[in-house]
Amino acid sequence: MNINQFIFSKTQPNKKLEVIEKLSNDELLAVSESTVKKIIQEVGQRRYKSRDKELRIDYDRRVGNDWNSVFEAVGTYKKKLYVHLYVQYGDCDTDTTEVVDYAKFFCRGKFEGEIKGIDYHFNPKYYYYTYDEDKKAKCIRSILEEYIYSKYADKLKAEVA
């Protein structure tokens, strides 16, 4: 099954969610950039005074690397895709949102990101976060699920009630 075509087909939302849950990591990593761009164009929110859009992942569907980072959103900026990652580093009070190129983040293999910070003596210090292919596949699954829940919110609520 080609998920790039199935996600936009005329199938019931519950059936789409079932199929998304059963996809393997290789099938999830086969989701193309054009599919993600189309998802963002359909259900993403416009940024203030901009043509660019962003699809924020709901808190219930956010996934991360189970260590110090969480996948927050995916968006476009001047027709290029970017990933927004919340990264906590240093002590518990130090965090930031990193913006990473989509193609670089979702390429095959492990993604290793770094943040340059400073210690309490103002010396430069590097903090790292990593995503393996399993975690990246979960990030794509959260994008697909967010699309279904955003686009078909009324139908899903009607079926639950």
Beta fraction: 25-35%
Following the backbone from N to C, one meets helices and strands in this order, namely: HHHHEEEEEHEEHH
Largest sheet: 5 strands, antiparallel
Stretches where pLDDT is under 50 for at least 5 consecutive residues are none
Structural class: alpha+beta
User: In whole angstroms, how far apart are the ends?
Assistant: 31 Å
Arithmetic mean pLDDT: 91
Count of domain modules: 1
- Outline type: globular
Question: Can you put this structure into words, describing what you see?
Answer:
The chain has one domain (3-160). The chain has helices spanning 3-6, 13-22, 25-29, 33-43, 102-105, 133-151, 153-160, and strands spanning 45-46, 53-56, 69-77, 80-88, 95-101, 111-118, 124-131. The strands form two sheets. It has a five-stranded antiparallel beta sheet. A two-stranded antiparallel ribbon has the order 6-7. It has 161 residues and is an alpha+beta fold.
